[in-house]
Structures are given as structure tokens and as C-alpha cells.
């Protein structure tokens, strides 16, 4: 049962306690889009095909109501766009973007290259680069980036050009089927950004990665800083760092002080912004893996983590965009990720701002509160 705000207030006024979860199921008085928009922050959602997502009219309507923008969750990845050498397929992405355009939603691209071979198309990983492997690798990379960016042109205001170039375990830059033939990761990454800038000079170009505030990500953060510095000294055209923000569980931080201290995270963001880069929260969701099974406590834990993270991160005015990786729990990738979703209790994960019925959860209220408290964007 869902009460509207007036009914919930009437019950509260009559001294009747609302069962946990019910009060926040009341339809919110303000949307994420309105609350964030007042401060100049753009809100977005990742859209993908499927019955709980693009094929559900209510979910599409929710996205249009709550967001300024969308990104394709999978439809603009290399594996989808160029499934076989030289064969491009824009059908899925074009359909999502056409709907978004009709709704007046802005559109961004993710991701021209996903560095780890595991996420590259298998044809590319197994490719025979022939007698002049460097030239052939350059031709393939250039063909992909040029064809894709030209297809979408100025329709997309922002692109993740490179995704996850750092190996978080070692802190080294990942080698891939392309880096090995193009003079190493820094040279190859530089090449990707230059190709993108040449073809879509007006688009914001983003380096996207999942380094977070937790102590376990120390090497990852340090490596991303080294990469951004190396690219800056080469004059690589990068505009922003994408912080994926698949946050929690921060067991290491929480064990120390109850609340995540975020000291290292601030230092990291100070360094990135000190180099002149903008920031994008590109894939926001909150793992409930280490939280109690009880739904009210779990939702409260997810909301608290979201608020802690957003309070610190959004205190940087350089954060211009916040994209959620799915708006409802059943439209979020963690639901099917055995290793990251909350599986211990055998219960479905609750990792986003809206529940499976598309009713707002405590995380929604936490986001609204964070937007009210953050400084306006420049
Ligand atoms: C994920 C999608 O959500 C899944 O549907 C897909 O199976 C795998 O990729 N980091 C990223 C995103 O940059 O592209 C990933 O998206 C999630 C982690």
C-alpha cells in the first residue's frame, strides 16, 4: 500500500505511527531533477533494453520525470556497436536516444573503449594483426571511434572515451590487445581522446573509472592520479573524470569510525580538480551486500551511505552531472551480480532510489537532502 503525502501527513497528525518504509513511499513533493536543477546539477539515468527498463512505459516515464539526461547502459559499448569487424549496429542505441530526444532528455555516450580485454569484443581480442600490427591496431581503433562519434555527432553532449584503464589490484595501467600494439597504455589512451576530440569537438570527453573512497582503493586512486597527470603533460584533450560511484560496502572505513572519514577521498578530489578537471558521478548505486536483511534497516543503511558519499563529493562544485546506474532496484545491474548484490539473505538487492514498484525509498530522500545542502554549481 502506498500513501500520498497528504494521507501520510494526516496519519502522522492524528498520532498514528507509520510502519517503516511507508512514510517514504508517499509521492515526493519534489523530483530529483527539480532539487538538483535548482543548484545547477544535471541528473541522469542509465537506460537499457529489457522488461523492467526501456520496455516498461512506467519506468520510461519515471526517468523522464526525475532526470535531465540519459546514458545507454550497454547499447553504446564496442561489443554492441561493432559486434563483428567492420560491421556496425546502431539499432538499440538509436531507439533509446530517439525516445530521449522526444522527451527532451539530454544524451551521453558510454564508452568508446573499455580497456580490459574481458569487456572488449572477442573478435578484437583474438584478432590477427598481421605483419604491421601497430598500423592495423591504429586503423581498427580509429575506425571504431571515428565511425561511432560521427554517427551520433553533436547529439551526445558528453562521452566516456576510456573506461577502467587501471588494474585496481596492482595499481598498474592495464595492457590490452590494443595497448600492446600502440606503444603502451598512455600512448593508446592519448590516441583515443585525440580521435574523439577531432570528430566531436563540442562533446565533453571523460575518463571513467571506479576508484572510490575506501582504504582498499588507495593504489587505484594513486594510479588514476598518475594517469591524469601523464595525460595532462601530453596535452591530451580530457575534460572530466568520471567517478563511477558504485559505492559501499565500506567495511574498512566503517570499522574505523562508524562513519566513513573520507579524508583520502577529499585529497584525491582536491588533486583531480587542482589539475583543472571537471567531475562526473557517472554510475551511482549503493551495494546493500553487507547490510542487515531487514528491509527498513537495509534501506536506511543504503540511504545513509548515499548521503555520506554525496555530501562530500557534491561539496565539489566541479561535479556537474550525477548519473544513476538504474533508477529502481529491479533495473540495477547488482540485482543479477552474485558477487556484489546482497545474496546472503537470499533476498533481492535494494540498491537504488526507487523500489520495484517505482515508489521512492529512503535513498531518494537522502539524495534530495544532499542536493538541498550542496553548494550551487558554477
Ligand atoms: C555493466 C552493465 O550494467 C551490465 O548490464 C553489463 O552486463 C556489464 O556492464 N562499470 C561500467 C559499466 O563502466 O559499463 C558496467 O555496466 C558497470 C561497471
Secondary-structure topology with pairs:
Blueprint: H1 5-13, H2 22-25, H3 32-37, E1 42-47, H4 57-66, E2 69-72, H5 78-81, H6 91-103, E3 106-109, E4 113-114, H7 122-125, H8 133-152, E5 158-163, H9 185-199, E6 204-209, H10 218-234, E7 240-243, E8 246-247, H11 251-257, H12 263-274, E9 278-286, H13 295-313, E10 319-324, H14 362-373
Parallel strand pairs: 1-2, 1-10, 2-3, 3-5, 4-5, 5-6, 6-7, 7-9, 8-9, 9-10
The protein binds (3S,4R)-3-hydroxy-2-oxopiperidin-4-yl beta-D-xylopyranoside (XIL).
Structure description:
This protein has 378 residues and is an alpha/beta fold. It has one domain: Glycosidases (TIM Barrel, Alpha-Beta Barrel). Helices cover 40% and strands 13% of the residues. The protein has an 8-stranded parallel β-barrel, surrounded by 4 helices. α13 links the parallel β9 and β10. The longest helix has 20 residues. The two termini are 42 Å apart. About 5% of the residues have low confidence. The site of (3S,4R)-3-hydroxy-2-oxopiperidin-4-yl beta-D-xylopyranoside (XIL) has 6 residues, from loops. It catalyses: Endohydrolysis of (1->4)-beta-D-xylosidic linkages in xylans. It holds the Pfam family Glyco_hydro_10.
Amino acid at each position: 500500500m502506498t500513501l500520498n503525502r497528504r494521507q501520510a501527513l494526516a496519519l502522522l497528525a492524528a498520532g498514528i505511527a507509520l510502519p517503516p518504509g511507508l512514510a517514504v513511499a508517499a509521492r515526493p513533493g519534489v523530483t530529483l531533477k527539480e532539487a538538483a536543477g535548482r543548484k545547477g546539477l544535471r541528473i541522469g539515468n542509465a537506460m537499457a533494453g529489457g522488461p523492467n527498463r526501456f520496455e516498461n512505459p512506467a519506468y520510461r516515464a519515471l526517468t523522464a520525470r526525475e532526470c535531465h539526461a540519459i546514458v545507454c547502459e550497454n547499447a553504446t559499448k564496442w561489443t554492441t556497436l561493432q559486434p563483428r569487424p567492420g560491421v556496425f549496429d546502431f539499432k538499440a542505441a538509436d531507439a533509446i536516444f530517439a525516445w530521449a530526444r522526444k522527451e527532451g532528455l539530454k544524451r551521453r555516450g558510454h564508452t568508446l573503449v573499455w580497456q580490459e580485454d574481458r569487456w572488449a569484443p572477442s573478435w578484437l581480442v583474438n584478432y590477427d594483426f598481421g605483419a604491421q600490427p601497430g598500423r592495423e591496431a591504429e586503423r581498427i581503433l580509429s575506425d571504431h571511434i571515428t565511425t561511432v562519434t560521427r554517427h551520433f555527432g553533436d547529439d551526445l553532449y558528453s562521452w566516456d572515451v576510456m573506461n577502467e584503464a587501471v588494474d585496481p589490484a596492482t595499481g598498474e595501467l592495464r595492457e590490452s590487445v590494443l595497448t600492446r600494439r600502440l606503444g603502451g597504455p598512455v600512448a593508446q589512451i592519448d590516441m583515443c581522446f585525440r580521435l574523439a576530440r577531432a570528430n566531436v569537438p563540442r562533446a565533453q570527453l571523460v575518463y571513467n573509472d571506479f576508484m572510490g573512497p575506501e582504504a582498499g582503493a588507495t593504489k587505484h586512486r594513486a594510479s588514476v592520479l598518475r594517469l591524469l597527470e601523464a595525460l595532462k603533460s601530453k596535452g591530451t584533450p580530457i575534460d572530466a573524470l568520471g567517478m563511477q560511484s558504485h559505492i559501499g560496502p565500506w567495511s574498512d572505513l566503517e570499522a574505523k569510525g562508524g562513519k566513513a572519514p573520507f579524508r583520502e577521498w577529499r585529497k584525491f578530489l582536491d588533486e583531480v580538480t587542482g589539475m583543472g578537471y571537471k567531475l562526473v558521478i557517472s554510475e551511482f548505486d549503493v551495494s546493500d551486500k553487507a547490510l542487515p536483511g531487514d528491509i527498513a534497516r537495509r534501506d536506511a543503511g543504503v540511504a545513509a551511505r548515499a548521503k555520506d558519499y554525496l555530501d562530500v563529493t557534491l561539496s565539489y562544485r566541479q561535479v556537474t552531472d550525477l548519473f544513476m546506474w538504474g533508477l529502481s532496484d529491479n533495473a540495477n545491474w547488482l540485482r543479477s551480480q552474485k558477487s556484489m548484490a546482497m545474496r546472503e539473505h537470499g533476498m533481492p538487492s535494494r540498491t537504488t532510489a526507487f523500489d520495484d514498484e517505482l515508489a521512492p525509498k529512503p535513498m531518494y530522500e537522502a539524495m534530495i537532502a544532499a542536493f538541498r545542502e550542496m553548494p550551487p554549481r558554477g
